[in-house]
Amino acid sequence: MYRNQIKKKERKNEKKTLKTIFGFFLLGNSIFLFLSFFSFLFHWKHDQSQLEKLFDKEIIAENLLGKMGATVSHCFIHCGIGVSAFFIPILLFLKGLKILFSEKEFFNDFYQSTIYKFLFFIVWLPIFFSVIVPHQGIFSGIFGFEIGNYLIHLFGKVGLYMLLLTSIIFYWIIIFRINASTIKNGMKKKIQNINKKIETTLQLCNYFDNNPEMDSSFRKGKKMLYSILYKKKEDFSSIDLKIDLESNKKKIIQILNHYHIEICEIKANIGPTITLYEIYPKVGTRISKIKNLKNEIALNLSALSIRIIAPIPGKGSIGIEIPNYKRYPVYMKDILFSEESHKKSHNMELPISLGKTVFNEIFIVDLAKMPHLLIAGSTGQGKSVGLNVMIVFLLYQKHPKDIKFILIDPKKVELSIYKKISKSYFATLPNSIEPIITDLHKVKNILNSLCKEMDQRYALFEKYKVRNIKEYNNVIKKYNKYHLPYIILIVDEFADLNMNHKKKQIEIYITRLAQLARAVGIHLIIATQRPSVDVITGLIKSNFTARIAFRVSSKIDSRTILDCTGAEQLIGKGDMLFSNRNELIRLQCPFMELSDIQKIVDFYGNNNKKHEYFFLPEPGIINENE
Ligand SMILES: Nc1ncnc2c1ncn2[C@@H]1O[C@H](COP(=O)(O)OP(=O)(O)OP(=O)(O)O)[C@@H](O)[C@H]1O
Description:
8-stranded mixed β-sheet, 21 helices, DNA-binding, 4-stranded antiparallel β-sheet, binds adenosine-5'-triphosphate, alpha/beta, cell division
């Protein structure tokens, strides 16, 4: 018994060795053929006359691979199928790879689909060349020339052109599974897109023209900004992803069936970064069974990481999020000027755009309602880009008299780009005008001052018997007095503030603002690289119900931010989870190049010169021992 097993093992090893040798043999041959074919294209005229004297030592072939190369190329290219012969070494190379890596399903699938695609062109190209360039035999080879001639004899030259054209059209239809409805839908979509673009441009122009709150230079400038930023637009083809989609669907069904899980339906939505597969299991299927197959599914699909949402809230289905092998970028300029974002944001007090959902919808939230936002994620996952996107969206949507920023940037470089707009868009202390606070010792002064501003605003509201900033600004119009702007405090690295020995004091200010400042129009956006419990304390967490998690390194970090796992499975570069109370949404944050941010800042800096700093009250006396 034992001996039998050893023999079996030996035979298996022998087979493996033979397979490896054969694989490398094919790879070697393919390289040999490719090089000799390539060289033949340049030296065929010289070498052809020498071929009969193959064994004559005096005669030297010019082909890179000598007389052997020249002879083989002559047989395949000249006497055979012309330049289509190049497909042979490519197919041999793929076959070699397939043999060497037979356990990888990817190679098998790829080889199979490529063979069919190539076979068509191996026949089609020589005939095509025989008609297009009949005197260049090297392109069509004798095979192409003879068949081409015969077909011309049968159908005439025009008939052959039509035959070639029809066959290539059939080929594309079969390969890309095109049918009448896809062509119709494609054309409809294209027309709709063109109309939409024209409409959006007109609507934006109308909006700029009709909005009485905008002074003329501001309006004109916005139009200019539109033309500066909108000059380039990359197009993305989703054909590749659609092919991927079908094979992934099959694989998911296969693996579930393998574990005896039957499903009624599977749907898919291609998002910018991930594709969401919605599975409708048969009644009686245990959800935990599918959840437990996470690793098996990831392995079967060769996916980096997958996330299972079981069940998808509000739907009778289970979601499997799989990263796209090719992600398509979400550009800020597409969001900024889109009709969809204009429609979604125009009734909001402080709209901020967080990106696109897996259903390719633009996701915009009202900071005034959230009312504060906590952002966390490991280094390099997109926090700073996310903050820039929020600032730019607010700049674009709001007039300088409506919003004022306070930027705290312990890293010193991340937010310095906004210095140019500080006069019109920033709130600052009266005695030390410092637009972006980078000195940690000054942080407690500004926070103290902000708390004082909050108290003063509450006193004002009491006097005018209003409950919040919106009501106050409405009432105050009658008295012809200045209305109050919203104040948005942004901290780029909260952990750095907490490292300071004034940690407790800062936490008290932040908590007080987070608890009370909403009604008076003061909102906080706090970002941190270190989502640990000593930075995001229970007190902070309970006051920041809206949270964003970019990719983090561990499940514990994910729980610290979101109270659930998932952020450790994100794939970076702006891939994020937004959580607000019981809602958890996966989004792709838009991307903005630094040069575009600079253009926007320059534009707003130049167009709002007449606006002045918004001064906060003098900070009160701070007890240093607190
Ligand atoms: N939304 C996005 N789309 C595409 N790429 C992105 C996106 N966000 C970030 N990136 C890429 O990731 C890089 C790092 O992003 P970013 O500087 O925002 O990270 P970070 O989380 O702020 O890092 P740190 O905490 O170290 O400052 C960017 O330079 C960019 O190449």
